[in-house]
Amino acid sequence: MEWLIPVVIVVALVVIIGIYLWATYNSLVTLKVRVDEAWSDITVQMKRRADLIPNLIESVKGYAAHERAVFENVTKARAESLTAQGPAEAAAAENHMQTALRSIFAVAEAYPQLQASQNYLQLQGELVDTEDKIQASRRFYNGGVRELNTKIQVFPNNLIARNLGFTQRDFFEVSDSAAIAEPPRVQF
Length: 188
Prior knowledge:
188 residues, mainly alpha, de novo design (two linked rop proteins), 6 helices, transmembrane helix, membrane
């Protein structure tokens, strides 16, 4: 009978440790999936924006055919945005895209007939809506990354998280945050 108490204590410790590992692993998986989903949302919105840009370019081209460099910069920024891999590349592409969109809207401001075009106004509205969705998706992604990184770094999770294959994720940070603080606008 004397050996029963130490055995019960050891079994209880093993069960407690097992439950802790199970709960920690499941919560880390949940956070990882949430971050992956958020990143997917960002890429979906960036793809939507990239799909709108050729239509916007065509609308503006008819009025400002001599602004070739602007159109080339927008096209280049679009391609860079579509091929970005991971938050760091996407952030750099985001900076270039914002600059390119500002330049195309600046060109459009010089053409009152273009600003009155229903097609152009609809494309502009959709683009602004998409920019808002990208910004919201970035916030959701960064919140998920914050939760995941915190869970991985806190003790005692930091002792087992890396062994279970969980690594910290990068935030979606843009080097020129003032450039993307607001979606591009055209003032009439």
